[in-house]
Write a structure and sequence with these properties.
12 helices; two-stranded antiparallel ribbon; extended; single chain; 2 domains
Length: 349
């Protein structure tokens, strides 16, 4: 019996060894060795460029986008009022906005293009009311010269709230919103400026009041026992407001000094229109537009104060709609009209 058990044990041992020898081996995966993470990103050092190697200089110029400190003028004025640039925080606040608007290339470039179309509309209205020309830059920084609406509900070039717009005789309802009417909204802005100047006697404070509200500015002046915008401790938005105006004004006065090279024919041209007086209800502005040879979209572009496709007018009020000639919708036909004098001085390209 023992002999049989011994043979059985030997047989099981042989089978176990055979099974181990014949079993498929698992593939060994060898992970490639990875270099340790670098402590910093390596930027190859550019070779020195000799004066006599213009080709190499051109290569370096294309590889590096220069970022330099901006030029701060020795003096600055808003509406004829001197800016105290020798005060360190005034100088630095002004410089901040100069840097932001100099290096925010796409935005500032678009402002230059649009200003050529819209400043000639705004400037004569300011002049009629004896408002300093610098106030045109308020519309520019408020809206970018677009009929936009803010999260708070302020609308149009001048960003009027509904209540303020109605206070200054702008019509605002479901069908008509004259905050989007550039000329009428500019007239309303002028009335605001004149009222605020009667309160403060200072154009810089008038600009600040347009942003923060006359009551708030007046209360802060009284509480802090100061009389100058530049001495006020005010919220960040209003604190930057006048500096932004000054910065854009400075860049527009000499754009090439701040890296902007814009040819005159690259600015947005003025599109001539004719006035059509409407003193009755127009039930379908789509058909109305077609009668004048333009699309409804074109009608709305030139009359953004119309908010729906009908124009109710039970009171018989005279509304003036701007209608462009179909020929003037093509770029190839624009630029032939004589420019208003104001358009020639929009920027100094």
């Amino acid at each position: 019996m023992l002999k049989y058990l011994t043979w059985l044990a030997l047989l099981l041992a042989v089978l176990a060894i055979s099974f181990e020898l014949l079993r498929p081996r698992a593939r060994q995966v060898v992970m490639p060795s990875l270099p340790p993470p670098p402590a910093m990103i390596y930027v190859p050092e550019l070779p020195p460029v000799a004066e006599e190697e213009p080709e190499a200089k051109e290569v370096v110029r294309k590889m590096i986008v220069p970022a330099m400190s901006v030029k701060i003028p020795s003096a600055a004025y808003f509406s004829g009022e001197s800016v105290p640039l020798d005060t360190f925080y005034v100088r630095e606040g002004f410089e901040r906005e100069l840097i932001v608007n100099t290096y925010f290339h796409s935005s500032t470039l678009m402002l230059m293009k649009k200003a050529h179309r819209w400043f000639p509309v705004i400037e004569p209205i300011l002049a009629k009311h004896n408002i300093p020309e610098d106030f045109k830059f308020i519309a520019l920084i408020e809206s970018g010269l677009d009929n936009v609406t803010s999260p708070a509900g302020a609308s149009g070039f001048w960003q009027f709230l509904k209540g303020t717009a109605r206070d200054y005789n702008l019509e605002v309802n479901d069908h008509i919103d004259e905050r989007y009417h550039v000329e009428k909204a500019t007239e309303a802005a002028c009335r605001f400026f004149l009222d605020a100047y009667g309160t403060f006697g200072n154009w810089t404070l008038v600009a600040a009041a347009f942003n923060a509200g006359p009551k708030r500015i007046g209360d802060m002046l009284k509480r802090q026992h100061v009389s100058s915008y530049y001495d006020l401790q005010i919220p960040e938005e209003t604190n930057r407001y006048v500096y932004r105006i000054l910065a854009v004004k400075t860049i527009f006065a000499n754009p090439t000094s701040y890296g902007f090279h814009v040819k005159f024919d690259e600015l947005y041209p003025i599109v001539p229109t004719r006035d059509v007086v409407v003193n009755h209800t127009v039930k379908d502005l789509v058909i109305f537009a077609q009668q004048y040879g333009i699309s409804y979209k074109t009608l709305r572009i030139f009359n953004p104060w119309i908010r729906k496709d009908e124009l109710p007018n039970q009171s018989g009020r005279a509304y003036i709609l701007k209608i462009p000639d179909a020929d003037h919708l093509r770029y190839s036909t624009l630029g032939d009209e004589p420019l208003p004098e104001a358009a020639k001085n929009t920027i100094n390209p």
